[in-house]
């Protein structure tokens, strides 16, 4: 019986090659898109699941609100690790990291440095917490002693080739020699440490031995004991501030008690809380925290991609249903004859389901071929390194199961629809199709509602990205060349700066380690001069803000606007004790830019001799400028003179940029032989911040086009069905004198009504959904009526072009042929 179904199915395919192709190709496009999206989602959900006992590993975070400014940090104070391992009974192991950043490294006998962009401080518990092993060395002692290094296999090979790296040394930043005490395997691309290849023992840092509770730059991970939960850990963390942090502050803040600290927080609404994030949740649920090891994604992206993938497959299935029922009139007599000859309804259903399964599995192979072809493009678009896991049996099992279900779902309606035909009605030509028409029309409305929704979403994403890229950020980012790791020039740095200044294309130069682009930066606590009153801690006198070390030319190089006071000036010898605030910091102090000038602030609040604390005097206020993503409000910022700069910003006035860069590199090689010349443009760095939104927009565009294409195939099929059903009517109208234009209009108008209904349904839904997405941005566009109108117009134009072919084709047929066919 099955062989008979297969034989009849293949015969019908060959009789209708065009519709068979449309069915197969439409379903294959949907399946290929669904496969790519499924692999994307699987990759997103797989992050950090390779670690041993991953369900017991958590990161400790800080949520802080000071003077109305809310901040979230992916790190903890330095002493937190010791408190957790000694006093928290639920904790089995704790490890700390410390972000070091880019570092120049070379062998002791070499002159040429190699830049390692991601260097991290780590302690000896690192390997045990994450269940990692060393390829070379002893993991128990590898990060115990100062000046110890552990390299990943690829970094070790970069510096030593095929030699054994264990026991050898590397010089960091042309200063100190570090001994390689271990080599570990490279971590996968779906790990939060994927970019990090160099680990320095934390004991190498002086402040690691006696860290204070205001050192918030230690990412801290705990491994819980078996049969304990995150709630147990949270219960302990809720006590840490009162038990440890405030008593620490009481040692240098006279009159401070736990009770009055609580009262002050209650009055001001300020707080500092510790909480946790599961290791497996970091990639998708921690995008907004400062100090992340790597750029994270967002669970919303998974939801969005799931939505697109689901509806892409649903559109393909609906398309199959419409195209199958469009051929129902041609196969109605076949069904009638089969039933007359004794076949029951179940037999007819089996026949059409068999054909559906044949089409589905044929589409599967075509979908795999399409996915292989477009995979490199998809990876470039999404920033992934996804491959199809052909060698995994579970992949094939799931793929076959999904294809079987898709075939069953897609073929069920056509099979049920055609199996209910009554032989007497079919053979007499009195077939009624009102119920089926309503279903098909509903499916067309559904298809185009999804298409309009995706069109609106795509337009909004691109408008927001364009808004971000063109918004006035409050500083100049264009034509700013950034030369990295300039500390490698040593005592020749000033000489190099002066030589670069002489280039005709150079307008100004500034040296600093801080750029107005998103990066991992910690906060610094400042107190106003009146923070201690009669021996009592006055919490409203404290603010936690970022502190940047800059030079005299920083403000002018970036065209920052001074709204009160002045910038740093070499003519004022007291500016070494001066400080410049941004408007957000002024607001945190609850004063105005004019009134804050002359105010004194200190960060030396732990000194016992308060009278001799070091104070900074506010000499100027700069207008707020965006140095974090536009998802976040502008935080408080203070700028002071000094520091050890590692970047040089060169403002270019115009002309031959390539020639200017070549001259800078040539001069660099003269003053810093053997040191790499690393540079980039600031606007490129800024654009990289919003790469995720740009990728999302591109992905939306691609899958929106696929959805529209599939919807058009479905509409094309329904138009063919409609034209075929009304052949006799069209012939009679033409005999009575109806024009081709009138007939085309009458055949098309019903479909345009369906598209209009789809537009009415889709526009409010898309407006609501995209407004929810835009809520993540502190600075955003408003969705305009023009965006909605463009989406509606695109849907109408696309549908008209799709339907017109079938309508015109039916309208120009000779009426004699039309009537004869009846």
Structure write-up:
It contains 25 helices and 24 strands. With 822 residues, the chain is α+β, with helices and mostly antiparallel strands. Among the domains are: 1-46 and 296-432, no CATH class; 56-285, no CATH class; 506-652, no CATH class. The strands form 4 sheets. Strands 3-4-9-6-8-7 form a 6-stranded mixed beta barrel. Strands 14-17-22-19-21-20 form a 6-stranded mixed beta barrel. The longest helix has 38 residues, at 345-382.
Topology, pairings included?
Elements: H1 2-15, H2 17-45, E1 57-66, E2 69-73, H3 80-87, E3 91-106, E4 114-122, H4 126-130, E5 134-137, E6 148-152, H5 153-160, E7 169-172, E8 176-184, E9 198-201, E10 220-224, H6 230-250, H7 258-268, E11 271-278, H8 282-285, H9 299-326, H10 328-340, H11 345-382, H12 393-419, H13 423-428, H14 434-470, E12 480-484, H15 493-501, E13 506-512, E14 524-528, E15 532-533, E16 536-537, E17 542-550, H16 554-557, E18 562-565, E19 578-582, H17 583-588, H18 593-596, E20 600-602, E21 615-622, E22 637-641, E23 647-652, H19 657-671, E24 678-681, H20 682-689, H21 691-725, H22 727-735, H23 740-774, H24 785-811, H25 815-821
Parallel strand pairs: 4-9, 6-8, 17-22, 19-21
Antiparallel strand pairs: 1-2, 1-10, 1-11, 3-4, 3-7, 3-10, 5-8, 6-9, 7-8, 12-23, 12-24, 13-23, 14-17, 14-20, 15-16, 18-21, 19-22, 20-21
Helix pairs in contact: 1-11, 2-9, 2-11, 2-21, 9-12, 9-14, 9-21, 11-12, 14-21, 14-23, 14-24, 15-19, 21-24, 22-25, 23-24
